Amino acid sequence: MKYDVIVVGAGHAGCEAALASARLGKNTLLITININNIADMPCNPSIGGSAKGIVVREIDAVGGEMGRNADKTLLQIKMLNRSKGPAVRSLRSQADKVTYKKEMLNTLQHTNNLTIKEAIVAELLVENKKIVGITTEDNETISCDACILTTGTYLKADILIGDKRTPEGPHGEKRANFLSGNLEKLGFKLLRLKTGTPPRIERSSIDFSVLSREDGDDEELTFSFDDIAYYNYKKQEPCYLTYTNEKTHKIIMDNLNKSAMYGGFYEKLGIGPRYCPSIEDKVVRFKDKERHQLFLEPESMSYDDIYLQGFSTSMPHDVQEEMVHSLKGLEHAKILRYAYAIEYDAIDPLQLKPSLETKVVENLFTAGQINGTSGYEEAAGQGIIAGINASLKLDNKEPLILSRSDAYIGVLIDDLVTKGTIEPYRLLTSRAEFRLLLRSDNADLRLSEKAYKIGLLSEKRHNMLLHKLKEMEEIEEEIKNITFPQEKLNLSAYLKRPEVKIMDYLNKFSKEYSKEALEQVEINHKYEGYIMKAKKEAEKMKRLGKKQIPDDIDYNKVDNLATEARQKLEKVRPRTIDQATRISGVNPSDIAILMVYLKRFYNE
Ligand SMILES: Cc1cc2nc3c(=O)[nH]c(=O)nc-3n(C[C@H](O)[C@H](O)[C@H](O)COP(=O)(O)OP(=O)(O)OC[C@H]3O[C@@H](n4cnc5c(N)ncnc54)[C@H](O)[C@@H]3O)c2cc1C
């Protein structure tokens, strides 16, 4: 049997990749270890958060599924940083892990051109440095023209609890034993990374009466730009807040030598995420902090597990019991699933092109945790781009590459393939120099036209985009004629004042406009100066981005380049001058030398 595209792994990256490839008309096979574990959330039961929530809206804007799936299955939703500027506002929802998987499986099963298969891929078949198929651990061979690897935290995964190392995937799932070795043989450099998860507590064993309650926002908020109310915002589940205390910190410090990460049991350990530290890391690193905040989050309405967010650990079970029982409200808690750390193999993302095709094997793409990132949203964002680009590659079309001023997904991928990473990479607003342009509210305006042009956005969604743009034009016209004689101003100028809200002047408009279009106009006027400045910077970067660097350039022939710059340029082999400017160790003087060289020898 032969497929156009084979996607290996049905996690958050794999689902988006397979849907994009199938929706673009490619005969797609999605192979995964356990069909009942599709779109699994092995860690926090939430979608979104700072920067991540904007990625989910971007995925939706380019025709992806995560936003819609999250809206259909959420237990609670909030707009984070509401009191701050629009550049950092971001949605975060509590998802029902059970219905999230069911909904995604249902969508996959009802997608044309998409076949789902349960198996473990053991080997990639490559001829003349080009992918031609895969072989499973049961020795079944399946051919393809392109393949997308999205194996997450499963490649040679080991579970670490205290001094015990168990070769296993997350929460008892099978791991992938052979693909790592095959990738190394093909010439890939692998990274050994690590992450961790907290214990799950039985809901009925917690004394919520002594904890503070955290409710969702009392308004309808959605990740998806679909105009469908996928949930009833009046029916949201609460989360609760507790804290560690002196007693917790003492138990951790007294037993630090028993923790998998601090016990010295293993010669070499995978590198963990700086921005998702274990509770041991927090207590050790921030000794002066008297307490650390912990959220109690519902995992699903179908079972009783409460997720203890912020308390991931690799301590042995008996110490975990002591640690949990030291927490307010959890004195009599029953641990249903113990915390653990997990180590797994990933590839060095400097071996990727900005299209997420590998430089090592043609028509082989990778997306998600395998590229050194951490997070459902980061994975899904890469997955949809890999799915789109595998399809475009088979059609001999130019890849879709989102720039740093187009999308957080663009920032994410550019950081990976240009700077690389040695620890699990998590997206942060601080990573995006154009964050004022990359807002949650305008993801459709930034990206949907691109998705429509490549055929991934529905007619209906495209018409909604055109309607919103038309509304924005009409509002711009109207606010010029809404005047405030006392202030000798019209609403267009008046909106620049921080305290002025466009929603307070709806009665002055000739007709009703959508909240979204009104919000856009208000933001564009209130932040006009900053937005213009950012757009100018982005244009400059785009112009530099147009300066292509030929694939066959020999950096040894470029005189006067600094040695470090020559080595780094050779390793990353940037596609454009713009990308070269972001490689650490390549200085402006090296860029100037390179541009002179390109002009002289390539007339670039
Ligand atoms: C214990 C744990 C704790 C985590 N903690 C955090 C955290 O605190 N913060 C955070 O941001 N992220 C955390 N994560 C990471 C988060 O789960 C991932 O970022 C996200 O799930 C990555 O999505 P993915 O699609 O790349 O891979 P995954 O969701 O891991 O999915 C990979 C899929 O590939 C399949 N697969 C793998 N190998 C093969 C093969 N050879 N053949 C066929 N199928 C295969 C698997 O069955 C699985 O369905 C944690 C993950 C784990 C396991």
Please give the structural blueprint:
Blueprint: E1 2-8, H1 12-23, E2 28-32, E3 46-48, H2 52-61, H3 66-72, E4 74-80, E5 90-95, H4 97-109, E6 114-118, E7 121-127, E8 130-136, E9 141-149, E10 158-161, E11 164-167, H5 179-186, E12 190-197, E13 200-202, E14 212-214, E15 239-243, H6 246-254, H7 279-285, E16 293-298, E17 305-309, H8 317-325, E18 335-337, E19 340-347, E20 364-366, H9 376-394, H10 408-419, H11 443-454, H12 459-481, E21 483-484, E22 489-490, H13 491-494, H14 515-526, H15 528-546, H16 563-572, H17 577-580, H18 588-602
Parallel strand pairs: 1-2, 1-9, 2-6, 9-20
Antiparallel strand pairs: 3-5, 4-5, 7-8, 8-9, 10-11, 10-19, 12-19, 13-17, 13-18, 14-15, 15-16, 16-17, 21-22
Bound molecules: flavin-adenine dinucleotide.
In short:
This protein is α+β, with helices and mostly antiparallel strands. The chain contains 18 helices and 22 strands. The protein is about 35% helix and about 20% strand.
Looking at this protein, list some descriptive labels.
7-stranded mixed β-sheet; 6-stranded antiparallel β-sheet; 18 helices; 604 residues; binds flavin-adenine dinucleotide; globular; alpha+beta
Description:
By secondary structure, the protein is an alpha+beta fold. 34% of the residues lie in helices and 19% in strands. It has 18 helices and 22 strands. The chain has helices at 12-23, 52-61, 66-72, 97-109, 179-186, 246-254, 279-285, 317-325, 376-394, 408-419, 443-454, 459-481, 491-494, 515-526, 528-546, 563-572, 577-580, 588-602; strands at residues 2-8, 28-32, 46-48, 74-80, 90-95, 114-118, 121-127, 130-136, 141-149, 158-161, 164-167, 190-197, 200-202, 212-214, 239-243, 293-298, 305-309, 335-337, 340-347, 364-366, 483-484, 489-490. Strands 1, 2, 6, 7, 8, 9 and 20 form a seven-stranded mixed sheet that branches. Helix 2 runs parallel beside helix 9, helix 6 (246-254) packs antiparallel against helix 8 and helix 12 packs across helix 14 (515-526).
